[in-house]
Amino acid sequence: MSTNAHECWKWSRAGLVWLLALMAGTWAEAVTAEQRTVLIVLGAEGEADYKAGFAAQVPLWAEAATRAGAKSVVVGAAPETETETDWAQIKRTLEAEPKAGTGELWVVMIGHGTFDGKESKFNLRGPDLAAGDLATWLKPFGRPLAVINTASASAPFIGKLSGPNRVVVTATRTGKEQNFARFGPYLAEAIGDAKSDLDQDGQTSLLEAFLSASARVKEFYKTEGRLATEHALIDDNGDGLGTPAEWFRGTRATKQARDGAELDGTRARNLPLVRSDAEEKLTPDQRARRDELELAVEALRETKSKASEADYYRDLERLMLELARVYAPSVAK
Predict the structure, then answer these.
(1) What confidence tens digit (pLDDT) does each residue in 236-249 have?
(2) 217 pLDDT exceeds 50?
(3) The domain 3-275: what is its CATH number?
(4) Of 51, 116, 163, 268, which shows the fewest CB atoms inside 10 Å?
(5) How much is the pTM?
């Protein structure tokens, strides 16, 4: 771990209060349809040993949001008040956010989670945040969403929150993986780190950060000689199933589910928090068209074994030319 990362681990919940004051002006800015928001939720630490580790992740996400030009909101870092619980503050924050537009809303949860066999919850100071609560609050949103739950027992959040134009990441593959999850700090480090840019396109997508963090979790358990008690999932196709990192080769899922379910990754591959210069130059319409075409390419690839070679390559050429025109409109039709 780098020196900067070691310093981050020294943060305490109280030490984050300055961060709230620093960003207060940002919160008050008018929100436009293109404005991106990162809601960072710091949960209850439980045992004191976890306090610094959880708090250290907040400035990493906040720094990445600042570099991205996104609005940051932190819940759970300031001292508790008697007038509003963290649960109520999350609800109020989401109610105030625009429901439509092209600007992404990122919801990042850092802390512990529980699962009682029916409902998965993220632990807060005061009332916990149930997956069903968050699903209800996010139901009106049509803008792009990225929901990241780095807690233990977080997998059931996928089933509740999965949907069109959404990416959902959890630290576990079932609600029964209830031991402390190490996925969170690795993801917080990866999201703004150029070293996690697997395809070398100048930006680290949420998919790439997910794959990098998953690899570091796997290495931790291997090095420690322990049986892994967490297996992260990513869902971005709306089927509520999720795909583990082991199913990816590079940034493309290659292993096919037994039931033939569509694999994830295409949408998350085009969702960086900190964008490259080339990505910033694209208009929201161009990004939407790019994502639509890449989904079409993936769908076409799934039909390769059934289509004639001539038909397959004809359709692939058409899609690739359309993709080229997104980046260079002058490309001949």
Answers:
(1) 999 999 999 999 99
(2) yes
(3) 3.40.50.1460
(4) 116
(5) 0.86
